[in-house]
Write a structure and sequence with these properties.
4 helices, five-stranded mixed sheet, single chain, mainly beta, globular, Neuraminidase
Amino acid sequence: MTVKKTRFLLAVMFSMLLFFPAAGMADSAFFDPMPGYAANDILTGVSFGGYDTFGSSVVGWGNGSLNVYDKTGGVTKALGAPTGYSGYWNSFVRLDPSGTSAWVGFTVGGNTDDRIYQVDFATSTWTHKATMASNFDMEFYGGNPFVSGLNSTNWNDPTSIWLLDTFGNNNHDKIVELRGNSAGLAFDGSGNAYYGTYDGYGVAGELFRWDATSVAGAIGGGHLAIADGTKLSDIELSAYDTDIDDAGNVLFNGNGSYVYTAIWNGTEGDGYNYDYIGVGDPSGSGWNWFTFIDSEGNVTEVDGGALYQTDSAAYGIAKVNAVPIPGAVWLLGSGLLGLIGIRSRRVR
Protein backbone atom coordinates (compact mmCIF):
# COMPACT_ATOMS: atom_id res chain seq x y z
CA MET A 1 0.00 0.00 0.00
CA THR A 2 1.37 3.43 -0.88
CA VAL A 3 2.17 6.07 1.73
CA LYS A 4 -0.52 8.30 0.24
CA LYS A 5 -3.20 5.60 0.60
CA THR A 6 -2.08 4.80 4.14
CA ARG A 7 -2.34 8.45 5.17
CA PHE A 8 -5.77 8.67 3.56
CA LEU A 9 -7.04 5.62 5.47
CA LEU A 10 -5.66 6.93 8.75
CA ALA A 11 -7.38 10.26 8.12
CA VAL A 12 -10.66 8.45 7.49
CA MET A 13 -10.25 6.36 10.64
CA PHE A 14 -9.69 9.34 12.90
CA SER A 15 -12.48 11.27 11.22
CA MET A 16 -14.76 8.37 12.14
CA LEU A 17 -13.59 8.62 15.75
CA LEU A 18 -14.50 12.28 15.78
CA PHE A 19 -17.88 11.46 14.28
CA PHE A 20 -18.48 8.77 16.95
CA PRO A 21 -17.24 10.43 20.16
CA ALA A 22 -18.53 7.60 22.37
CA ALA A 23 -15.19 5.89 21.80
CA GLY A 24 -13.78 7.99 24.66
CA MET A 25 -15.69 11.06 25.84
CA ALA A 26 -14.37 13.53 28.38
CA ASP A 27 -16.40 16.20 30.09
CA SER A 28 -14.09 16.22 33.10
CA ALA A 29 -11.61 18.89 34.08
CA PHE A 30 -9.04 16.34 35.25
CA PHE A 31 -9.90 12.83 33.99
CA ASP A 32 -9.29 11.84 30.36
CA PRO A 33 -11.04 8.49 29.69
CA MET A 34 -9.80 5.80 27.37
CA PRO A 35 -11.93 4.59 24.42
CA GLY A 36 -14.98 2.77 25.73
CA TYR A 37 -15.41 5.13 28.70
CA ALA A 38 -16.89 8.57 29.30
CA ALA A 39 -16.20 10.91 32.22
CA ASN A 40 -18.00 13.89 33.69
CA ASP A 41 -17.46 15.80 36.92
CA ILE A 42 -20.03 15.94 39.71
CA LEU A 43 -20.17 18.20 42.78
CA THR A 44 -17.69 20.58 41.20
CA GLY A 45 -18.00 23.16 43.95
CA VAL A 46 -16.51 20.83 46.56
CA SER A 47 -12.86 20.17 47.35
CA PHE A 48 -13.02 16.61 48.64
CA GLY A 49 -10.82 14.77 51.07
CA GLY A 50 -12.22 11.31 51.72
CA TYR A 51 -15.62 10.30 50.36
CA ASP A 52 -17.86 7.30 49.78
CA THR A 53 -20.75 6.89 47.34
CA PHE A 54 -24.04 5.11 48.00
CA GLY A 55 -27.13 5.12 45.83
CA SER A 56 -27.79 8.66 44.64
CA SER A 57 -25.65 10.15 47.42
CA VAL A 58 -22.06 10.90 48.38
CA VAL A 59 -20.86 11.25 51.97
CA GLY A 60 -17.64 13.20 52.01
CA TRP A 61 -15.33 15.58 53.77
CA GLY A 62 -15.60 18.72 51.68
CA ASN A 63 -14.67 22.35 52.26
CA GLY A 64 -13.92 21.72 55.94
CA SER A 65 -16.88 19.62 57.10
CA LEU A 66 -18.66 16.31 56.63
CA ASN A 67 -21.78 16.33 54.47
CA VAL A 68 -24.11 14.04 52.62
CA TYR A 69 -24.53 15.29 49.06
CA ASP A 70 -26.91 14.44 46.28
CA LYS A 71 -24.83 13.38 43.29
CA THR A 72 -26.66 15.91 41.13
CA GLY A 73 -25.56 18.71 43.47
CA GLY A 74 -26.38 20.15 46.86
CA VAL A 75 -26.03 19.16 50.51
CA THR A 76 -28.83 16.93 51.79
CA LYS A 77 -27.42 16.54 55.32
CA ALA A 78 -24.82 18.74 57.02
CA LEU A 79 -22.93 16.68 59.61
CA GLY A 80 -20.41 19.30 60.71
CA ALA A 81 -17.01 18.58 62.24
CA PRO A 82 -15.67 17.17 65.51
CA THR A 83 -15.70 19.53 68.49
CA GLY A 84 -12.76 19.99 70.85
CA TYR A 85 -10.36 18.81 68.17
CA SER A 86 -8.31 21.04 65.88
CA GLY A 87 -5.30 21.20 63.58
CA TYR A 88 -6.30 18.06 61.72
CA TRP A 89 -6.33 16.78 58.15
CA ASN A 90 -8.95 14.38 56.87
CA SER A 91 -7.54 11.00 55.85
CA PHE A 92 -10.64 9.01 54.80
CA VAL A 93 -14.43 8.78 54.88
CA ARG A 94 -16.11 5.35 54.78
CA LEU A 95 -19.81 4.47 54.88
CA ASP A 96 -20.74 2.06 57.67
CA PRO A 97 -22.18 -1.26 56.38
CA SER A 98 -25.49 -0.32 58.04
CA GLY A 99 -25.75 2.75 55.81
CA THR A 100 -26.76 4.86 58.81
CA SER A 101 -23.37 6.39 59.68
CA ALA A 102 -19.93 7.16 58.33
CA TRP A 103 -16.44 6.61 59.70
CA VAL A 104 -14.04 9.53 59.37
CA GLY A 105 -10.29 9.49 59.92
CA PHE A 106 -8.04 12.43 60.80
CA THR A 107 -4.33 13.02 61.32
CA VAL A 108 -2.50 15.90 63.03
CA GLY A 109 1.05 17.25 62.96
CA GLY A 110 3.40 14.74 64.56
CA ASN A 111 0.62 12.11 64.46
CA THR A 112 0.22 12.37 68.23
CA ASP A 113 -3.58 12.53 68.26
CA ASP A 114 -4.82 10.91 65.05
CA ARG A 115 -8.47 10.03 65.56
CA ILE A 116 -11.20 7.96 63.93
CA TYR A 117 -14.83 8.97 64.47
CA GLN A 118 -18.18 7.39 63.71
CA VAL A 119 -20.80 9.96 62.68
CA ASP A 120 -24.50 9.15 62.96
CA PHE A 121 -26.56 10.45 60.04
CA ALA A 122 -29.79 10.83 61.99
CA THR A 123 -28.40 12.76 64.97
CA SER A 124 -25.16 14.23 63.52
CA THR A 125 -23.40 12.83 66.61
CA TRP A 126 -19.63 12.41 66.39
CA THR A 127 -18.31 9.48 68.48
CA HIS A 128 -14.56 9.09 68.93
CA LYS A 129 -14.16 5.35 68.26
CA ALA A 130 -10.38 4.93 68.10
CA THR A 131 -7.01 6.64 68.00
CA MET A 132 -4.58 5.36 65.40
CA ALA A 133 -1.44 7.24 64.41
CA SER A 134 -0.98 7.84 60.68
CA ASN A 135 -4.26 6.23 59.66
CA PHE A 136 -4.79 6.40 55.89
CA ASP A 137 -7.76 4.39 54.57
CA MET A 138 -10.55 2.14 55.87
CA GLU A 139 -12.52 -0.74 54.38
CA PHE A 140 -15.09 -3.05 55.91
CA TYR A 141 -15.34 -6.79 55.55
CA GLY A 142 -17.63 -9.03 57.57
CA GLY A 143 -18.79 -5.95 59.46
CA ASN A 144 -15.26 -5.30 60.74
CA PRO A 145 -13.24 -2.13 60.00
CA PHE A 146 -9.75 -2.62 58.57
CA VAL A 147 -7.40 0.38 58.33
CA SER A 148 -4.16 0.94 56.44
CA GLY A 149 -1.48 3.08 58.07
CA LEU A 150 1.49 3.08 60.42
CA ASN A 151 -0.23 2.91 63.83
CA SER A 152 2.96 4.63 64.98
CA THR A 153 4.45 8.11 65.23
CA ASN A 154 7.76 6.73 63.93
CA TRP A 155 7.71 7.10 60.16
CA ASN A 156 10.44 4.44 59.89
CA ASP A 157 8.00 1.78 61.08
CA PRO A 158 6.32 -0.29 58.35
CA THR A 159 2.87 0.61 57.14
CA SER A 160 0.38 -2.22 57.58
CA ILE A 161 -3.24 -3.30 57.37
CA TRP A 162 -4.87 -3.38 60.82
CA LEU A 163 -8.10 -4.68 62.27
CA LEU A 164 -9.30 -1.61 64.15
CA ASP A 165 -9.97 -1.92 67.88
CA THR A 166 -13.22 0.02 68.41
CA PHE A 167 -13.61 -0.87 72.10
CA GLY A 168 -11.52 1.98 73.47
CA ASN A 169 -8.21 0.18 74.02
CA ASN A 170 -6.57 1.10 70.68
CA ASN A 171 -5.05 -2.38 70.62
CA HIS A 172 -5.22 -2.62 66.85
CA ASP A 173 -4.40 -6.04 65.39
CA LYS A 174 -1.79 -6.09 62.62
CA ILE A 175 -3.05 -8.26 59.76
CA VAL A 176 -0.57 -7.62 56.92
CA GLU A 177 2.80 -5.88 57.22
CA LEU A 178 3.50 -3.88 54.07
CA ARG A 179 6.23 -1.56 52.80
CA GLY A 180 6.67 1.97 51.57
CA ASN A 181 4.29 4.83 52.26
CA SER A 182 0.66 4.20 53.20
CA ALA A 183 -1.92 3.67 50.47
CA GLY A 184 -5.51 2.53 50.11
CA LEU A 185 -6.68 -1.03 50.72
CA ALA A 186 -9.59 -3.09 49.40
CA PHE A 187 -11.53 -6.30 50.01
CA ASP A 188 -13.53 -8.30 47.53
CA GLY A 189 -16.80 -10.05 48.32
CA SER A 190 -15.00 -13.26 49.33
CA GLY A 191 -12.74 -11.59 51.89
CA ASN A 192 -9.55 -11.48 49.84
CA ALA A 193 -7.49 -8.36 50.64
CA TYR A 194 -5.81 -6.16 48.00
CA TYR A 195 -3.16 -3.47 48.23
CA GLY A 196 -1.05 -1.52 45.76
CA THR A 197 2.25 -0.36 47.23
CA TYR A 198 3.46 3.22 47.17
CA ASP A 199 7.24 2.97 47.18
CA GLY A 200 8.13 6.58 46.47
CA TYR A 201 7.62 9.29 43.88
CA GLY A 202 8.19 7.89 40.43
CA VAL A 203 9.11 4.45 41.79
CA ALA A 204 7.29 1.41 40.43
CA GLY A 205 5.06 -0.34 42.95
CA GLU A 206 3.34 -3.72 43.01
CA LEU A 207 -0.25 -4.92 43.34
CA PHE A 208 -0.89 -7.80 45.77
CA ARG A 209 -3.75 -10.03 46.91
CA TRP A 210 -3.93 -12.03 50.15
CA ASP A 211 -6.44 -14.87 50.21
CA ALA A 212 -9.39 -14.76 52.58
CA THR A 213 -8.31 -17.85 54.55
CA SER A 214 -4.90 -16.37 55.31
CA VAL A 215 -6.41 -13.00 56.25
CA ALA A 216 -8.90 -14.64 58.62
CA GLY A 217 -6.10 -16.71 60.16
CA ALA A 218 -4.03 -13.60 60.83
CA ILE A 219 -6.72 -12.09 63.06
CA GLY A 220 -5.35 -12.62 66.54
CA GLY A 221 -2.89 -15.14 65.14
CA GLY A 222 0.16 -13.27 63.87
CA HIS A 223 0.40 -11.02 60.85
CA LEU A 224 1.03 -11.81 57.20
CA ALA A 225 3.86 -10.37 55.11
CA ILE A 226 4.14 -9.11 51.54
CA ALA A 227 5.59 -12.50 50.59
CA ASP A 228 2.42 -14.25 51.79
CA GLY A 229 0.40 -12.52 49.10
CA THR A 230 0.06 -13.18 45.39
CA LYS A 231 1.64 -10.58 43.15
CA LEU A 232 -0.89 -9.51 40.54
CA SER A 233 1.09 -6.85 38.70
CA ASP A 234 3.83 -4.29 38.72
CA ILE A 235 2.48 -0.73 38.98
CA GLU A 236 3.85 2.31 37.19
CA LEU A 237 4.74 5.13 39.60
CA SER A 238 3.21 3.44 42.70
CA ALA A 239 -0.41 3.40 43.85
CA TYR A 240 -2.54 5.76 45.90
CA ASP A 241 -5.71 3.66 46.18
CA THR A 242 -7.16 0.28 45.26
CA ASP A 243 -10.84 -0.61 44.91
CA ILE A 244 -12.89 -3.69 43.98
CA ASP A 245 -16.18 -3.17 42.16
CA ASP A 246 -19.28 -5.32 42.67
CA ALA A 247 -18.24 -7.61 39.81
CA GLY A 248 -14.80 -8.24 41.32
CA ASN A 249 -12.84 -5.98 38.97
CA VAL A 250 -9.62 -4.74 40.60
CA LEU A 251 -9.15 -1.00 40.15
CA PHE A 252 -6.20 1.15 41.19
CA ASN A 253 -4.39 4.36 40.31
CA GLY A 254 -0.82 5.61 40.04
CA ASN A 255 0.83 9.00 40.42
CA GLY A 256 4.09 10.65 39.47
CA SER A 257 5.20 12.45 36.33
CA TYR A 258 1.83 11.37 34.92
CA VAL A 259 -1.28 9.90 36.56
CA TYR A 260 -3.73 7.17 35.62
CA THR A 261 -6.53 4.90 36.82
CA ALA A 262 -6.40 1.28 35.66
CA ILE A 263 -8.10 -2.12 35.79
CA TRP A 264 -6.20 -5.37 36.39
CA ASN A 265 -6.50 -7.71 33.39
CA GLY A 266 -6.51 -10.99 35.34
CA THR A 267 -2.92 -12.03 34.60
CA GLU A 268 -0.84 -12.65 37.74
CA GLY A 269 2.86 -11.99 38.24
CA ASP A 270 5.52 -9.63 36.94
CA GLY A 271 4.80 -7.08 34.25
CA TYR A 272 2.18 -4.38 33.79
CA ASN A 273 -0.90 -6.59 33.83
CA TYR A 274 -3.56 -3.92 33.44
CA ASP A 275 -5.25 -1.49 31.09
CA TYR A 276 -5.87 2.19 31.58
CA ILE A 277 -9.39 3.43 32.21
CA GLY A 278 -8.22 7.04 32.12
CA VAL A 279 -5.34 9.44 32.62
CA GLY A 280 -5.03 12.89 34.11
CA ASP A 281 -5.26 16.42 32.78
CA PRO A 282 -7.25 16.40 29.52
CA SER A 283 -6.18 19.99 28.81
CA GLY A 284 -2.48 19.26 29.21
CA SER A 285 -2.05 22.47 31.19
CA GLY A 286 -2.35 21.41 34.82
CA TRP A 287 -1.00 19.16 37.56
CA ASN A 288 -2.80 16.06 38.84
CA TRP A 289 -2.55 13.70 41.78
CA PHE A 290 -5.28 11.05 41.76
CA THR A 291 -6.52 10.13 45.24
CA PHE A 292 -9.42 7.90 46.30
CA ILE A 293 -11.34 5.55 43.98
CA ASP A 294 -14.89 4.33 44.54
CA SER A 295 -17.17 2.23 42.37
CA GLU A 296 -20.65 0.81 42.00
CA GLY A 297 -21.84 -2.16 39.96
CA ASN A 298 -19.61 -3.41 37.15
CA VAL A 299 -17.52 -0.53 35.85
CA THR A 300 -16.85 -2.30 32.54
CA GLU A 301 -20.51 -2.75 31.56
CA VAL A 302 -22.49 -0.12 29.70
CA ASP A 303 -25.22 1.06 32.09
CA GLY A 304 -23.82 -1.46 34.56
CA GLY A 305 -21.98 0.73 37.02
CA ALA A 306 -19.60 3.64 37.53
CA LEU A 307 -16.11 4.44 38.73
CA TYR A 308 -15.46 7.55 40.84
CA GLN A 309 -12.08 9.28 41.03
CA THR A 310 -10.92 12.35 42.94
CA ASP A 311 -7.85 14.51 42.36
CA SER A 312 -6.08 16.47 45.10
CA ALA A 313 -5.56 19.37 42.67
CA ALA A 314 -9.17 19.57 41.43
CA TYR A 315 -12.68 20.19 42.68
CA GLY A 316 -15.44 17.61 42.41
CA ILE A 317 -15.45 13.91 41.57
CA ALA A 318 -14.97 12.40 38.12
CA LYS A 319 -17.75 9.90 37.41
CA VAL A 320 -16.62 7.40 34.77
CA ASN A 321 -19.02 5.13 32.87
CA ALA A 322 -18.50 2.47 30.22
CA VAL A 323 -19.98 3.51 26.88
CA PRO A 324 -20.48 1.56 23.65
CA ILE A 325 -17.90 1.87 20.92
CA PRO A 326 -20.06 2.24 17.78
CA GLY A 327 -20.06 -0.64 15.34
CA ALA A 328 -18.75 1.60 12.58
CA VAL A 329 -15.57 2.08 14.58
CA TRP A 330 -15.12 -1.66 15.07
CA LEU A 331 -15.54 -2.15 11.33
CA LEU A 332 -12.51 0.02 10.71
CA GLY A 333 -10.44 -2.98 11.70
CA SER A 334 -7.49 -3.86 13.85
CA GLY A 335 -5.30 -1.07 12.52
CA LEU A 336 -7.29 1.63 14.28
CA LEU A 337 -7.81 -0.48 17.38
CA GLY A 338 -4.08 -1.05 17.52
CA LEU A 339 -3.47 2.68 17.43
CA ILE A 340 -6.04 3.16 20.19
CA GLY A 341 -4.45 0.36 22.19
CA ILE A 342 -1.08 2.09 22.22
CA ARG A 343 -2.59 4.97 24.16
CA SER A 344 -4.91 2.88 26.33
CA ARG A 345 -2.00 0.77 27.57
CA ARG A 346 0.75 3.25 28.45
CA VAL A 347 0.54 7.02 28.32
CA ARG A 348 3.55 9.13 29.13
